[in-house]
Specification:
Shape: globular
Keywords: ATP-binding, Kinase, Lipid biosynthesis, Lipid metabolism, Magnesium, Metal-binding, Nucleotide-binding, Phospholipid biosynthesis, Phospholipid metabolism, Transferase
Family: Belongs to the diacylglycerol/lipid kinase family.
CATH architecture of the largest domain: Sandwich
Number of domains: 2
Number of helices: 8
Protein name: DAGKc domain-containing protein
CATH topology of the largest domain: Tumour Suppressor Smad4
Cofactor: Mg(2+)
GO molecular function: ATP binding; ATP-dependent diacylglycerol kinase activity; metal ion binding
Strand order of the largest sheet: 6-5-16-13-8-9
């Protein structure tokens, strides 16, 4: 492995934590003997182009500094290439880093762990989800949760997580289940009224909500969590259990496992790794061993 590695930095992640985190992470990597160059970019498209150029030039690893959005962007550069991906997680949710067992909001510790893993060859291949040409590492969300994202993204104020808490309250006031058509790779078709459908390569989204608690990054399958036609009261009662994964025991919740799934519903946007994918219908495929990651 070359001793030159690339930091892929989002300076705006976590209200500026991305920019502040790059320096201690880079220092830890340099102290371990690595040569570090930094990739920024004028926008997401430019940054991705620069990251892909670094990968094509043979960088020893691409280290994303930021949140789940930055991790998701980095996946587009490294998936299928064999170039290792490391994460210095300093975003709001950081669910992909949690799934990989990496430190969260501790850039120096993350830098040291990544350096040790690269020097010791502690790399592993994990699955990714793919929708069209877009890769994702954690969860494809649709339904109530994606409507909350839609509303929160339209709100200018307040900033941070509070904006999405307020968006959730507003969506609860207008709450209704949605008619879904879900098609699995075995040909089974489910037409259901559902509050949400989550396609999990990883287990959590939203900063630790374990919506697909049984998801395994190495089994070649998605866990698809379907929350049925809950009332508002039932949803409020079940929601707190999502943080420990206990919601899957509720009779309104079913979990399916599949390597491919199509989800269709009118007026619903799909989000993956916290970023919009587009309107349903969407078809997701689980691609085994699609990316090499650095970590424990």
């Amino acid at each position: 492995m070359t001793c030159e590695i690339t930091l892929f930095v989002n300076p705006t992640a976590g209200r500026g934590r991305g920019a502040r985190a790059a320096q201690p992470a880079a220092s830890a990597l340099r102290e371990a003997g690595f040569s570090v160059r930094t990739v920024l970019g004028e926008n997401a498209e430019d940054a991705l182009s620069r990251a892909r150029a670094a990968v094509a030039a043979g960088t020893g690893a691409l280290i994303a500094v930021g949140g789940d959005g930055m991790a998701g962007l980095a996946l587009q550069a490294v998936a299928g290439t064999g170039t290792p991906l490391g994460l210095v997680a300093v975003g709001t949710g950081d669910d992909f880093a949690r799934a990989l067992g990496l430190p969260v909001r501790s850039p120096a510790a993350a830098g040291r762990l990544i350096a040790d893993a690269l020097k010791g060859g502690r790399l592993r291949d994990i699955d990714l989800g793919r929708v069209g040409d877009r890769w994702f590492g954690t969860v494809l969300a649709s339904g109530f949760d994606s409507r909350v994202n839609d509303r929160g993204n339209r709100m200018r104020r307040p900033a941070g997580r509070l904006k999405y808490d307020l968006a959730m309250l507003a969506e609860l006031a207008a709450f209704r289940p949605f008619p879904y058509r879900i098609t699995f790779d075995d040909g089974a078709v489910h037409e259901v009224e559902a509050t949400l459908v989550a396609v999990g390569n990883g287990s959590s989204y939203g900063g630790g909500m374990r919506i697909c608690p049984g998801a395994d990054l190495t089994d070649g399958l998605f866990d698809v969590t379907v929350v049925g036609d809950c009332s508002r009261r039932t949803l409020l009662r079940v929601f707190p259990a999502v943080y420990r994964g206990g919601h899957v025991d509720h009779p309104k919740v079913t979990v399916h496992r599949a390597a491919k799934v199509e989800i269709a519903a009118e007026g619903i946007t799909g989000y993956a790794d916290g970023e919009p994918l587009g309107a349903l219908p969407l078809t997701a495929r689980c691609v085994p061993a699609a990316v090499r990651v650095v970590g424990p």
